[in-house]
Write a structure and sequence with these properties.
With 504 residues, the chain is an all-alpha fold. Among the domains are: 34-244, Alpha Horseshoe (Serine Threonine Protein Phosphatase 5, Tetratricopeptide repeat); 389-504, Tetratricopeptide repeat domain (Serine Threonine Protein Phosphatase 5, Tetratricopeptide repeat, Alpha Horseshoe), CATH 1.25.40. The chain has helices at residues 2-24, 34-44, 48-61, 67-83, 86-91, 93-104, 111-130, 134-154, 161-171, 180-186, 192-203, 213-231, 234-241, 252-264, 268-276, 289-299, 306-316, 323-337, 340-352, 359-368, 376-386, 390-398, 408-424, 428-442, 449-463, 467-479, 488-501. Helix 18 (323-337) crosses helix 20 (359-368). The N and C termini lie far apart (88 Å). The model is unreliable at 1-9 and 12-24 (pLDDT under 50).
Length: 504
C-alpha cells in the first residue's frame, strides 16, 4: 500500500510538473482578437495611445498572441513616421528592437510568423530611410526579404506575403544607380510586373476574414502608389484606392491615402474636398503633413487660403522633411500676390530651416539661393498645370512673350511647361517639337528640364507604341545630361520603369 501511494503521488507530481512547464512555455500563435481589431482600427484613426493601452491589457491576458507585438510595432512605426521626431526615433530604437526580438524568440509553425516579422523589419527600414540611415535600412530589408523567401517556399499559398514580396520586387525593379549597393545586398534586381501581379492576386482574393480587413487596405495603397510611380497609371491608381477608403471622414489614414492618390490622379478639387473632411486630431496624433498637402492643393488653384495651411505646417511640424518646400510655396504665394519682400523673407527661412533628403526640399533650397525669382504669370501657369487645370495654364502661357524671359531657367520652364500642357491635351506633335527645343537649350544646364523633356518624349513615343524611339529617349534621359543636378534619382527611376514596360 505504501509503494502504491508513493507511485501514485509521484505520477501526480510528474503530471503537475509537466503542466506547469507547458503553462510557462505556452505555444505562440497569431490571432486577431476583437481587442486587436479595435486597436488596429484606432491606429487608422491615429489614436495611438488608446490603441497601445488596449494592446497592453490584451498582452497581460494572452502574452503568447504574436498579433499584439506586431500591432505595437505598427503603432510605433506610424507614430514616428508621421512625427519625424528625431529624438523619439533615437529613444525608441531599444523598444523597436525589443518588439522584433519578442516575435523572433517565439517561433511557431505558421505562415503569419515570418510575415509579421518581415512587416516589422520593413517598417523599421522605411523609417531608417526617412532618417537617412540608409545602410541600417538596407540590412533590415535584407532580413525581411530572406523571411519572405523562406515563407514563400514553406507556405506558397499564403497570400498576405504578396503585399511585401510584391512591394519589394517592384521597388527594386528600377532602382537608381546610387542605390545599386542595396540591390546587390539583396542579390536581386526586382520584377515590376511580377511584383504588381503578386499584390493584385492578394487584393482580388476572396480572403475577407478579420485578419485581412486592414491588410488589404494597406496593400491597395501600396498597389496604387506603384501604379502611379512605375506604370504611369494614375487614374487606375485612383480606381484602386477609392473603394478601400470610402470611410475617409472617420479614419485619418484613409483620408491621407485617398487624398494622396487623388492628387496623383489630377483630382485637385477632389483632393481639397477630401482633406477638408479629415477627422479632427483632438484625440489623435497630429498629422501636420496633411496641412502641407491641403495648402499645396489650394495653391495649385491659386487660392489665397493656401497660406493658412502652409504656415500651420511650418509652425507645428517638428520634423525636417518638406519644411524647405513649404517655405518655397509660401514664397510663391507671396510672389503671386505681388508681395516681393515677403517672398524674400520666406526664401530666407527656406535656406535656414529643414533638410534636403527629399527632392522637393533640394529644389526649394536651390531656388531660395537663386537671386532671380519667378515671373508671376509663369509661376501661375506652373501651379495651374500641377493642379491639372490645363486649359487655364495654357491661357496663362499664351499671354507670355518669350523674348521677355531673359533668364535661361525661365525660358526653359516656359517651353517645357507649354510642352507638358500640349502633351496632356494630346497634341503630341506640338509637344515633341517643344521638348526637342528644351533639350537643345538646356543640354548643358544644371536644371532638370532637358532630362525631363527626354523622359516625356519617351512617354509620348511609348503611348504611340513607337518602342524604338521610346527606348532611345528613355536611355537619353538616363545618360545624356550629366550636368543635371535636379530630380536625378526620380528621372532615372522613371526611365528604367519605362524601359521595363516596353520590354527593353
Amino acid at each position: 500500500m505504501l509503494l502504491k501511494a508513493i507511485l501514485k503521488k509521484n505520477i501526480l507530481l510528474g503530471v503537475l510538473f509537466f503542466m506547469l512547464i507547458n503553462l510557462g512555455h505556452a505555444k505562440a500563435y497569431f490571432k486577431m482578437t476583437e481587442p486587436c481589431l479595435k486597436a488596429q482600427a484606432l491606429l487608422y484613426k491615429l489614436r495611438i495611445s488608446e490603441a497601445n493601452q488596449i494592446l497592453s491589457e490584451e498582452k497581460s491576458k494572452t502574452p503568447e498572441n504574436q498579433a499584439i507585438p506586431w500591432l505595437q510595432e505598427y503603432c510605433l512605426y506610424i507614430g514616428l513616421f508621421i512625427s519625424e521626431n528625431e529624438t523619439d526615433y533615437k529613444l525608441q530604437q531599444g523598444n523597436w528592437k525589443g518588439l522584433i526580438k519578442s516575435v523572433e524568440s517565439q517561433p511557431f509553425e505558421d505562415a503569419w510568423h515570418r510575415f509579421i516579422l518581415s512587416d516589422m523589419y520593413l517598417h523599421r527600414a522605411a523609417m531608417r530611410l526617412k532618417m537617412n540611415d540608409n545602410f541600417a535600412a538596407g540590412s533590415d530589408i535584407k532580413v525581411a526579404n530572406s523571411l519572405l523567401k523562406d515563407n514563400e517556399k514553406l507556405f506558397p499559398n499564403f497570400l498576405p506575403d504578396n503585399k511585401n514580396i510584391g512591394m519589394v520586387s517592384a521597388l527594386f525593379s528600377a532602382i537608381p544607380k546610387n542605390y545599386t549597393w542595396l540591390g546587390n545586398l539583396l542579390g536581386f534586381e526586382g520584377n515590376l510586373e511580377g511584383g504588381l501581379n503578386k499584390i493584385e492576386l492578394y487584393l482580388q482574393s476572396d480572403l475577407v476574414d478579420k485578419e485581412h480587413q486592414w491588410l488589404k487596405v494597406e496593400s491597395a495603397f501600396i498597389y496604387a502608389l506603384l501604379q502611379h510611380n512605375f506604370q504611369k497609371k494614375s487614374k487606375a491608381a485612383w480606381l484602386t484606392i477609392a473603394p478601400y477608403t470610402t470611410d475617409f471622414k472617420n479614419y485619418i489614414l484613409l483620408n491621407y491615402m485617398r487624398a494622396t492618390i487623388a492628387g496623383y490622379a489630377g483630382k485637385n478639387e477632389e483632393q481639397i474636398t477630401i482633406l477638408n473632411a479629415k477627422p479632427s486630431h483632438a484625440q489623435a496624433q497630429p498629422f501636420y503633413y496633411m496641412e502641407y498637402m491641403l495648402g499645396l492643393a489650394k495653391l495649385r488653384k491659386l487660392d489665397a487660403e493656401a497660406n493658412i495651411h502652409l504656415k500651420l505646417f511650418t509652425v507645428k511640424f517638428k520634423g525636417k522633411n518638406y519644411i524647405k518646400s513649404a517655405y518655397r510655396y509660401l514664397a510663391w504665394a507671396e510672389l503671386i500676390a505681388g508681395n516681393n519682400s515677403a517672398a524674400t523673407t520666406y526664401y530666407s527661412l527656406c535656406s535656414k530651416h529643414g533638410q534636403t533628403y527629399q527632392e522637393e526640399d533640394k529644389q526649394a533650397l536651390n531656388e531660395a539661393l537663386d537671386p532671380i525669382k519667378w515671373p508671376k504669370e509663369l509661376l501661375e501657369a506652373r501651379l495651374l498645370f500641377d493642379g491639372h487645370y490645363f486649359q487655364q495654364a495654357l491661357d496663362k502661357l499664351d499671354k507670355i512673350q518669350p523674348n521677355t524671359l531673359v533668364n535661361t531657367k525661365h525660358l526653359l520652364e516656359f517651353n517645357y511647361r507649354k510642352a507638358r500642357v500640349q502633351q496632356e491635351l494630346k497634341a503630341y506633335g506640338s509637344a515633341l517639337v517643344l521638348y526637342d527645343k528644351v533639350i537643345t537649350l538646356g543640354q548643358e544646364q544644371s536644371y532638370y528640364y532637358a532630362a525631363y523633356s527626354a523622359l516625356q518624349m519617351a512617354n509620348i513615343y511609348e503611348t504611340l507604341n513607337n518602342k524604338s524611339s521610346a527606348k532611345l529617349y528613355y536611355n537619353k534621359a538616363i545618360a545624356d545630361f550629366p550636368k543635371n543636378k535636379e530630380y536625378v534619382n526620380s528621372i532615372e527611376q522613371k526611365a528604367k520603369s519605362g524601359l521595363k514596360r516596353i520590354g527593353s
